[in-house]
């Protein structure tokens, strides 16, 4: 089916809702100095809000003096076709705005290795997410987006968040939106972000009206087309996954713009929709996702002690984590796409080393699949924190902090990589020298009997 074959409801020529929204946006733009943050997910509603805002900037021209920030969340485990689409949209948007001197800044926020899906699932052994233990939302979506927004708030003293939520989406969403207290301009304070007001420009738009605008205003002003997005809605079932800024937002598992690894839902209808529409190369991804869901319920794949030291199914066992990493890297070869970053593998190794692994197993598994991964590079903040911890703990164990610091420096500075046998042997020799020097120094300072 081609794009032009998709049936669109024929709407009456009444366009009052468009004019009212455009006038409202214009009035709010000049109402105060707070910069705007447009939460963009790539879905139809957030795309509509972004397009209306962008068209306003183009219309205002030199009189538009207040910055607009576009924040889009890339969890690193988006469906690969959606991830490519999102990256292309944001690149075109940023380039067009820059070329035309528009005060619009694009932020494609991603989780750090510590916040990432694989960093937590394989590194720390977190079981794959459930409806009751949805750890992925906070770590992969809320924290990265909040870090950017909090920074904008610090720089400007406050922001207005523009969200694509609509009353027409669902009865529960409408009830929550109508229950919010608003100020004289109809904006409500965000329930978790200080100094942030929330605007929902298309709250009153019906779904048909959203589609009509996107079809009749295609291509968007920043270039490219909406065709791929519109086709995604034809291919996959499920709802739209918004930019998540707090835990009040329900899970978007199974949505067209959700994560391919989502195990919150029983069946990923979105992925199945892609596959049934011809993207058969995604079948191995779907099978891997189903396997992650299955092993979560297999107690033999989990430790018998929880992270709080209570008895019960705990994190994935060390062998299970190694199995997941090996199968994930094999999956990369099968689908021909990068699914885990080097920094995530390095972080996984760091976590394993802290808990159970002294042979760099994660790095060795990566090498099996021709992935050469270096060790984690410590930041100055990491070094400062670690050295402060040495100074604090050394007296408790009756250890001279200077010698502990010397040993620490050997590992972090002189031997950051221990991939070769010779480097390991040299490290051992240098450690012996430090210890012998420490013993000699202690003997000199020990009072005579």
UniProtKB/TrEMBL annotation:
InterPro entries: PAPS_reduct_dom, Rossmann-like_a/b/a_fold, Sulfate_adenylyltrnsfr_sub2, SulphurTrfase_DndC. This is DNA phosphorothioation system sulfurtransferase DndC. It comes from the Bacteria. PANTHER family: PHOSPHOADENOSINE PHOSPHOSULFATE REDUCTASE, SULFATE ADENYLYLTRANSFERASE SUBUNIT 2. Residues 37-221 form the Phosphoadenosine phosphosulphate reductase domain. NCBIfam families: DNA_S_dndC. Pfam families: PAPS_reduct (PF01507). The gene is dndC.
């Amino acid at each position: 089916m081609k794009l032009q074959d998709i049936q669109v409801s024929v709407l009456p020529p009444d366009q009052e809702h468009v004019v009212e929204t455009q006038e409202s946006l214009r009035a709010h733009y000049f109402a105060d100095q707070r910069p705007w943050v447009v939460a963009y997910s790539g879905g139809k509603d957030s795309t509509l809000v972004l397009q209306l805002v962008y068209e306003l900037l183009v219309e205002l021209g030199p009189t538009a003096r207040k910055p607009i920030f576009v924040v889009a969340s890339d969890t690193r485990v988006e469906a690969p076709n959606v991830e490519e689409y999102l990256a292309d949209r944001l690149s075109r948007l940023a380039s067009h705005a820059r070329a035309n001197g528009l005060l619009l800044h694009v932020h494609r926020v991603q989780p750090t290795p510590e916040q990432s899906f694989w960093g937590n699932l394989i590194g720390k052994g977190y079981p794959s997410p459930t409806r009751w233990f949805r750890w992925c939302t906070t770590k992969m979506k809320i924290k990265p987006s909040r870090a950017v927004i909090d920074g904008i708030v610090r720089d400007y003293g406050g922001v207005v968040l523009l969200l694509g939520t609509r009353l027409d989406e669902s009865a529960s969403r409408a009830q929550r939106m109508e229950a919010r207290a608003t100020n004289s301009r109809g904006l409500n304070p965000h329930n978790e972000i200080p100094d942030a007001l929330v605007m929902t420009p298309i709250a009153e738009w019906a779904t048909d009206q959203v589609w009509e605008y996107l079809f009749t205003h295609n291509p968007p002003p920043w270039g490219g087309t909406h065709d791929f997005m519109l086709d995604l809605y034809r291919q996959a079932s499920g709802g739209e996954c918004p930019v998540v800024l707090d835990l009040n937002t329900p899970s978007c598992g199974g949505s067209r713009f959700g994560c391919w690894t989502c195990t919150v839902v029983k069946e990923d209808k979105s992925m199945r929709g892609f596959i049934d529409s011809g993207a058969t190369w995604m079948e191995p991804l779907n099978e891997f996702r189903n396997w992650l869901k299955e092993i979560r319920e297999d107690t033999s794949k989990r430790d018998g002690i929880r992270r709080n030291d209570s008895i019960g199914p705990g994190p994935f066992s060390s062998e299970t984590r190694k199995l997941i990493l090996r199968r994930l890297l094999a999956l990369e070869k099968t689908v021909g796409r990068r699914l885990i970053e080097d920094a995530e593998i390095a972080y996984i190794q760091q976590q394993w080393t802290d808990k159970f692994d002294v042979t760099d197993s994660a790095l060795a598994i990566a090498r099996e699949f021709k992935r050469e991964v270096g060790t984690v590079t410590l930041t100055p903040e990491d070094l400062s924190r670690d050295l402060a911890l040495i100074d604090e703990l050394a007296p408790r164990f009756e250890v001279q902090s200077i010698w502990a610091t010397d040993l620490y420096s050997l590992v972090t500075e002189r031997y950051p990589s221990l991939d070769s046998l010779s480097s390991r042997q040299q490290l051992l020799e240098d450690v012996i020298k430090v210890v012998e020097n420490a013993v000699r120094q202690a003997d000199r300072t020990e009072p005579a009997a």
